[in-house]
Amino acid sequence: MQVERLGSTPPCTRCGQAVLIATTLPAGRDNVTVELCATCDAGNPTAAPLIALLGETHRPVEQMSSLINTWLRAELTEQGLVRVPQQRSGRDGHQ
Questions:
Q1: Rounded mean pLDDT of the chain?
Q2: Distance CA 47, CA 68 (A)
Q3: How many Å apart are CA 53 and CA 57, to the nearest integer?
């Protein structure tokens, strides 16, 4: 994933406000854009802690990284782009 800091953030595709984070990730033959909006995502349980942390002056890097990973994984799972591994049973891995 390439990280690029922009001078300004793009508008949210849902409400038009500036997003806090926007990233485009490869998804098969297409790309998917994921955006974090303080207005639209305030009630999202995986986004709310990240939104709160982004509003703080002191942002611990490890905590920020963990919250971004949690939020991205939830967003990509919701869009069907991350498969949750099924638990296997038995010694040979077959169910």
A1: 82
A2: 8
A3: 8
Give the torsion sign (CA, 35, 41, 46, 50). positive
What is the tens place of the pLDDT at every residue in 83-92? 656 566 555 5
Read off the pLDDT of residues 23-58 as tens digits, 9 standing for 90 and up: 888 777 888 888 999 999 999 999 999 999 988 878
| pTM, full prediction | 0.73
Which residue in 42, 29, 93 sits closest to 71, CA to CA? 42
Q: Which of 81, 80, 68 is nearest to 21 (CA)?
A: 68
What span, in angstroms and rounded, lies between the C-alpha atoms of 1 and 13? 22
